[in-house]
Specification:
Length: 536
């Protein structure tokens, strides 16, 4: 085992440890309280509901990671969700985690739930809500309640999805309070568990305070009340298992989805192995991206586009689990162009940006989804690059990425720095799904350059105040800045804030891309690609 392979396995061990910690939700005591009420945990509910022989791709498992320590934490953003199969049908599942602050919504909870709804809307997938939440986390209500991308957007999306013909099923297994009460009622069908499920705009304590009425939760908004008196809910069940069985039945009767018509043939495994050993442990050394691509694609077959032009970006056609894709990837080796000039790996030059823009247009013309493999340190700078038109060609590539109508998928396999993140379809450019390997780094620039820049700014500020700083103090300050900056470049920092949908084992890359392509294939492309004013 070489040092690169060893470093990747160490990173994966850390990923597994953190994931196990997240899977405990609010902890053993909170789980025990769920059991006392004859309630399953959200992960147990998903395990019961989902088809056992099909993959489940969790989205946002690291949402909220290390973000709310003063409030006791918010593992997985207080919600377990992702894409899986129910009765053979690919669905988005959103399950509140009542073990985390009674399922209350933190700011990241709202962001995660909106992301899951976005996935459903983009790919026209049915949505199943497993509801068990006390509503907004009141100490942070100003960060979750009133803005455009806050709590209320959930119900706006409920209405929009209904108008789009996207099936939504809500199974109420616990509390469903205040504004959250609208979610199940804005779904197509509402199921409730007797004794535990409840829906009301105001709970018993608030009713007592507001109008002086004494009423218990079951009478106020329990399953019997809403299936027999108000007519709000459609079905009631004695157990969660019976409720989930009915969800499976409902999904089994859905009509077939439309198809985007993306090409797929019989899948084949890559002919090349050794993925773990490819990425240098420090992220700075060169490696051949072609080898990485050959470890990911069917039969290791990569049909390269403009192979001898714009060599710091690799563009070409391949198949992943049978699906036809176009790949745009950063080459990390040093290359030489036709003029005999050396070009640095991981950097986007004017010719590589020009090539990528043309390739993206070709994929849109042919209705071939795009896969971006990011290990980018940015665009080339300097007078030669400026004179060759790097801004013009970079803008051309960004325009093509932004206006592409075929589905885009992004995997951060190494560095993702500066405007290179944008050009290579970072989160701001609407990839259908975006994942990071555990060695990924995402930042405006590399750690060493950023730390030295920040140090210069702080030293200049101190000198402006008439204060001097010794070389020893300067060294200590640089180390402090470097640690802080590097902590913000990790994939965990990015995943906590949902800049990426998840952190994955490199060997899972084919699976998450295949499932993403299967989802995207259920949403036909309805608009032509238009680029507007295009720099040529």
């Amino acid at each position: 085992m070489d040092k690169n392979d060893y470093a990747m396995r160490q990173a994966l061990d850390q990923l597994r440890r953190y994931t196990e910690q997240i899977h405990l939700g609010g902890g053993a005591k909170a789980i025990a309280r769920q059991k006392e009420k004859n309630k399953l945990t959200p992960r147990e509910r998903l395990a019961y509901l989902l088809d056992k022989d099909k993959p489940f791709i969790e989205i946002g498992a690291f949402a909220g990671w290390e973000m709310y320590e003063e409030e006791g934490g918010c593992p997985a953003g207080g919600t377990v969700g992702g894409i899986g199969y129910v009765s053979g049908r690919q669905c988005v599942i959103v399950a509140n985690d009542q073990t985390v602050k009674a399922g209350a919504w933190f700011p990241i909870t709202g962001k995660k739930n909106l992301r899951l709804q976005e996935i459903a809307m983009e790919n026209r997938l049915p949505v199943i809500y497993l509801v068990d939440s006390a509503g907004v986390f009141l100490p942070m209500q100003d960060e979750i309640f009133p803005d455009k991308e806050h709590f209320g957007r959930i119900f706006r999306n409920n209405a929009r999805m209904s108008a789009m013909g996207i099936t939504q099923i809500a199974a109420v297994m616990g509390a469903c309070v205040a504004g959250g009460a609208y979610l199940p009622i804005m779904s197509d069908e509402t199921l409730m568990v007797e004794g535990n499920g409840s829906i009301f705009l105001a709970g018993p304590y608030l009713v007592k305070a507001a109008i002086g009425e004494d009423v218990d939760a079951e009478t106020l908004g329990g399953a019997v009340t809403h299936t027999e008196r108000s007519g709000i809910a459609d079905y009631k069940f004695p157990t969660e298992q019976a409720c989930l069985d009915e969800v499976r039945k409902i999904i089994s009767r859905l009509g077939a989805s439309a198809s985007a018509g993306f090409d797929r043939i019989q899948p084949a495994l890559p002919a090349r192995e050794g993925l773990y050993g490819l990425i240098p442990e420090n992220g700075a050394k060169a490696y051949d991206m072609r080898t990485l691509i050959e470890c990911l694609v069917d039969d290791s077959a990569f049909d390269e586009f403009k192979k001898d032009y714009g060599k710091t970006l690799l563009c070409g056609y391949a198949r992943i689990d049978g699906w036809a894709v176009g790949i745009v990837a950063n080459q990390r080796t040093m290359v030489k162009n036709r003029k005999g000039e050396m070009q640095m790996g991981g950097v986007i030059y004017h010719d590589s940006a020009d090539k990528a823009a043309r390739f993206i247009l070709n994929c849109n013309q042919k209705k071939i989804p795009l896969v971006f493999l990011q290990d980018v340190t940015g665009f080339m700078v300097g007078s030669r690059s400026e004179h060759e038109g790097i801004i013009k060609d970079g803008a051309k590539m960004v325009n093509a990425v932004a206006n592409s109508v075929v589905p885009k998928f992004t995997i951060v396999v190494g560095n993702s720095y500066g405007a290179g993140n944008y050009a290579m379809c970072g989160k701001a450019y609407d990839p259908r799904f975006i994942y990071a390997w555990p060695n990924a780094k995402i930042a405006v620039m590399g750690g060493e350059q950023a730390a030295k820049t920040l140090l210069q700014i702080q030293v200049a500020s101190l000198k402006a105040q008439g204060r001097s700083i010794s070389p020893e103090e300067e060294k200590t300050l640089l180390e402090s800045i470097t640690r802080r900056y590097q902590s913000q470049t990790t994939p965990y920092y990015a995943a906590a804030r949902l800049w990426v949908d998840g952190i994955i084992d490199p060997l899972e890359t084919r699976k998450v891309l295949s499932e993403g392509l299967a989802a995207a294939d259920q949403s036909p492309i309805t608009e032509p690609m238009r680029v507007g004013v295009f720099q040529v």
